[in-house]
Specification:
The chain has one domain (2-119, 132-155): Electron Transport, Fmn-binding Protein, Chain A (Pnp Oxidase, Chain A). Helix content is 19%, strand content 43%. The chain contains four helices and ten strands, in the order βααββββαβββββα.
Length: 157
Amino acid sequence: MTRALGPTLSPALVERLSQRDLERRLGVGLGFVTVDAAGCPHPMLVSYLEVKAYDARTLGLVIQARSASARNLAERGVGTLVVIEPERSVYVKARATGPPLRAGELARFTLAVEDVLEDSPDPGEGDVAITSGIHYGPPPALDDARAKAVLAALRAG
């Protein structure tokens, strides 16, 4: 059952996406869905390394500048961050606030949060629960050149 939480991230979600506990979240995947030229959803995987909550209404997202997702986001300006983990299932609908900031092969988009939805089991589903999110390995080291470039792009003004 999905319920609308409004146009801002909860304090818990801001904290989770703040990168203050980034090292512990390395290796966890998140979904990000853009809309392609035909109007179809275009999913991609991102990580906590590539997403940062600046505040309850603003996210930063760093992706490959020449990717289809970057093109979709630049052209249509909308995307949905999908956080599916045992603690929560949340969909964050967001809109790009302008063109991306280019940093070499990377593009940093600033996204305005427009709607936050939380999904939970319907009471008729019993004790069903998400038991695991998306995990990948090996997780990147924060001193890796690409990780440093992504973090620098997220921190650039």
